[in-house]
Design a protein that fits this description.
alpha+beta; Glutaredoxin; 2 domains; 5-stranded mixed beta sheet; 4-stranded antiparallel beta sheet
Length: 235
């Protein structure tokens, strides 16, 4: 019995020690940087701790001898460890998104879902819009996120006030047809989207969210979007 209990006791002691170390590192980093740390995790690399704060990942040792801001690559697999961790740390619960604030489009059976945060003056968003137009069997939620210029807000308001929001958005983003409508309706949805984007720490457009909550920033290749849509839908 003693032989069976001893490994369990050692494992429990080790776990408590790791938790204590992570807590102390969290406290030390907050004191050093004067910012709130969301999480601290002991990494399997060089005795470093992963520190997630202010939407970015930092690395440090238990004594804060150095604080590293950058990308961590696994030397054996060459995987971008930092990028993989960011995908997990910035993931959301898709059902928590206030979809009523988005421009909704349904194609085919609509079984696959995708939410995007886009600025009407974003060149990468226009490229994404043209690529997404090739997708079928999708329900697309486009959140108007005007963060690039005052004109972005004007255009977003015009889209939201259009009788056919999806058509107005596609005409502008895909075909470059000038928006002719007025932005004088209730545009509180646009302002709420800006607040939501800031809450989610979205600093660039486009930003994509898949059904499993994973966040992907930037205009990624359509093949990657297609693959991720299938994975996220469980098909």
């Amino acid at each position: 019995m003693l032989k069976k209990l001893l490994p369990l006791a050692l494992a429990a002691t080790f776990s408590l020690t790791v938790l204590a170390d992570e807590a102390s590192v969290k406290k030390a980093v907050e004191a050093k940087l004067g910012t709130k740390v969301s999480s601290v995790l002991k990494s399997p690399y060089l005795g470093l701790y992963e520190v997630y704060a202010d939407g970015q990942i930092l690395y440090t040792d238990e004594k804060l001898t150095a604080i590293i801001a950058g990308t961590l690559i696994d030397g054996k697999t060459m995987k971008n460890v930092t990028a993989e961790r960011m995908q997990k740390l910035t993931a959301i619960k898709f059902s928590d998104l206030p979809l009523e604030l988005a421009v909704k489009q349904v194609r085919g059976d609509g079984r696959r879902v995708l939410a995007t945060f886009e600025d009407p003056n974003c060149g990468y968003c226009k490229k994404l819009a043209k690529d997404i137009a090739k997708l079928d069997n999708i329900t697309l939620y486009t959140f108007l996120y005007p963060i690039l210029s005052p004109d972005s807000l004007d255009k977003s308001n015009q889209v939201w006030c259009s009788a056919d929001k999806a058509r107005a958005w596609n005409d502008w983003m895909q075909d470059g047809k000038a928006l002719s409508g007025k932005g004088d309706c209730d545009v509180s949805a646009v302002h709420k989207t800006v607040e939501l984007g800031r809450k989610l720490a979205i600093t660039g457009t486009p930003t994509l969210f898949f059904a499993d909550g994973e966040r992907v920033p930037g205009a990624v290749p359509i093949a990657q979007i297609e693959k991720k849509l299938e994975q996220a839908s469980g098909k």
